[in-house]
Amino acid sequence: MSPTLIIVLLSMLLGIQPVATDLYLPALPAIKTEFGAALSQVQLTLSALLLAFGTSQLVWGPLSDRFGRRPILLCGLATFTLAGLGSVLASNMHELIVWRTLQGAAMGAVVMCARAIVRDLYTPETGAGVMSKALTGLGILACVSAPLGGLLTDLLSWHAALSLVVGFGAIAFALVAVKFKETLQRKNPHALTVQVLAKTWWQILRHPTFVAFSCVAIGSYGGLFTFLASSSFVFIDVLGLARWQYGMLLFSMAFMYLLGTVLCRRLLVRLGVARTVAIGGAFSLTGGGLMVLHAWLGWQSVAGLMGPFYVFILGHGIHQPCGQSGAVGPFPQAAGAASALGGFLMMAAAFATGLWLGAANDGSAMPMATSIACWSVLTALSAWVLVLRRGSPRV
């Protein structure tokens, strides 16, 4: 596969997550109204998807180390597409939750394999740059998804927005089936043995490099998930924006994330991974701190909330390429298992955050701002204390 094809494939595989969520976010209030559901139920369609996404990776990772990335990708993409069709046709809230949960489980195979493919093909230092390019593609997909989801929901219905997710899954399946070549050179015949699997997971979890870079990725993603899970209700229901206006806000957020991935590549060349992550920590802490300060002072406006979050999301564009590639870097023979564990921990944190947001909802922006601020502190401390102290990841 050519370098360009690899980047395109990785962008689509990693981008399946924002496509599945960002197209859907502007439709959440409409789903709540149509089904007459409680806010906690509506948020469960997102948090359950992400919990299944994270948990399923613990299964997909060892399977991909045993059988290769290609069969797991094809299985995941086929299931993702079929579950998406079920979501479109759902007639009540319970059906929608079930189909979205299955879709999340299938999505776990796709994203986990994408991260493992980077380790199959590249060293940790080179992998951070490649991951940054792929996540730039993810940022472009996120830019398009949010406003398109809002527009389709306004003009047609939320069913139309979810139909587009089905179409993306089908295109990704066709591209992998036709163009993707297996990247795992030596399959591990013992990858599914319980004793070997337990030993591998224990070695990964206790590795200082995995802990350091996973904490950065978890903290940064926790702040992003907080925004994704609660912002539609804050900006549409509390601040009175139209769905298409909210979609444009998500577009602007995704564009800042895209700029963050570009900045990440420039900083990596000049400073290396560790110091690049440390700079990202400063963005995270500044953004989260200003957001909670504005909310506490009562400045609950679009500018007062989005301005600080732009700073946070710029740091997110730095942390995800470095965090995801850095965590998997020390494990060339168990990239699937390491990718799976990292993904599971990120989604477990997101699920817990979603439950807390549902319980803490008070009709204001304060729960959202408080949660993002807490995650920003964890991200900055992980970047400065854990990653900067250890230095750049090695083979």
Number of helices: 14
Radius of gyration from CA coordinates:
19 Å
Structural class: mainly alpha
> What is the share of helical residues?
over 70%
Based on Cα principal axes, name the global outline: globular
Distance between the termini: 23 Å
Succession of helices and strands: HHHHHHHHHHHHHH
Low-confidence stretches: none
Beta-strand residue percentage = under 5%
Report the average pLDDT across residues: 85
Main sheet: strands, sense, barrel: none
Tally the beta strands.
Answer: 0
What does this structure look like?
This protein has 395 residues and is mainly α. It has 14 helices and no strands. It has helices at 3-22, 28-35, 39-67, 69-88, 93-121, 124-155, 158-179, 194-205, 208-238, 243-271, 273-296, 302-328, 335-360, 366-390. It starts with a helix and ends in a 5-residue tail after the last helix. It is 85% helix and 0% strand.
